[in-house]
Amino acid sequence: MAPSLAEAFLKSQGASDVKILPGANPEEKTVQGILPSQSSVSVIQIAAHGSATAFSSLAEDACDIGMASRRIKPEEAAKLASLGDMSSSDSEHVLGLDGIAVIVNSANPVNGLAKDQIMQIFSGEFSDWSQVGPLSGAIKIYARDDKSGTYDTFKTLVLAGKDLAPGAQRFEDSNALSDAVANDPNGIGFIGLPYIRRAKALAVSEKGARALLATPLTVATEDYPLSRRLYLYTPSNPSNPFTRKFVEFALSKQGQDVVGDTGFIAQNIIPQNQQVGREAPLDYRHLTAGAQRLSLNFRFRPGKSDLDNKAVVDVDRVATFVADLRYSGDKILLLGFADGTETPKLNKELSLNRARTVETKFVERGLRPGIVKGLGADLPVASNDTEEGRERNRRVEIWLRQ
Length: 402
Fold this sequence. Notes:
The protein is α+β, with helices and mostly antiparallel strands. The chain has helices spanning about 1-10, 50-60, 75-80, 115-120, 150-160, 175-180, 215-220, 240-250, 255-260, 280-290, 310-325, 345-365, 385-395; strands at about 15-20, 30-35, 40-45, 65-70, 90-105, 110-115, 140-145, 170, 185-190, 200, 205, 225-235, 270, 290-300, 330-335, 370-375, 395-400. The strands form 4 sheets. Strands 4, 5, 7, 8, 9, 10 and 12 form a 7-stranded mixed sheet that branches. The chain has a 5-stranded mixed sheet with strand order 13-14-17-15-16. Strand 2 and strand 3 form a beta hairpin. Helix 8 (about 240-250) packs across helix 9 (about 255-260). The longest helix has 21 residues, at about 345-365.
């Protein structure tokens, strides 16, 4: 994605003769072009050696922008204090989202698995299908190779430090992996969303939460358990004038189109019809009847009532989207949720307060939402046993009434 973004950025600046050139190894690229009124070549160098190197390179003044597929750690932020508050919206920028689908043969009777079961299968703890469902037979594991970003995502989200089962068959090509699983009644694999093809994607659940299929909507809203954010980190006041310009381009609609074109989930607003299941509370079903869900959730800073950096940008994205449709604010429906760790009454209050926090941001932009409701701890999307899960459950959904 980074080379494609750099190429599109240089072209947006009016550069000519733009090229993507190979680097010293497969993890490095150089993107170059000639900017207007300049005779010499301008260069963007890209090195993708892992998220940790983003922060060490920023500390060493060896890069202008750090790319990471995880949030910065407190100890990393402390080492970069001279560059500003790395958790602020001036430094932390959500570039896009990534999701992994778990796939099986279309004849496999298993339709969904818990995240823990997926970890046990791919680590080799479970070796027969009878351990997770009605099918019997040895489980055959298909996985991307070690250089794959998809594999890196899967290791982070599922394996949690465990090794991949030694008998796994590895693939460099996503299409080949998907077709191998589709042709093997006992096969299971993981793949990026565009490569499901003839295989069957499984719904994935966490403890206490409903199972969800990997779709552009469930990844965009971050409800799907195997989704994650992709970040750009910069100094709060970068010395290179192109740093801020590049980030602004990457977060713009044009930049987000590039994110989507390279197989990741972009943050451009898309309204979608979502079928609400019968397990949903009656209030929720009534409120959303006839409405379309927008492709995001508003979430909050860890342990705080403030919107996180992605949510702050998303408010502007939604405001622009609604204005382009010439809709008034009363078409907006905000539904707040809590993590279930308090009493039902307090959960209801907390969820309503979150929805009202988002409402305030829209009112500041001249849009007054028509319905603002707190639904307490209903419809969890993650386990409340972990802080990460509780953070994901503390959210505000946005729907648009017709």
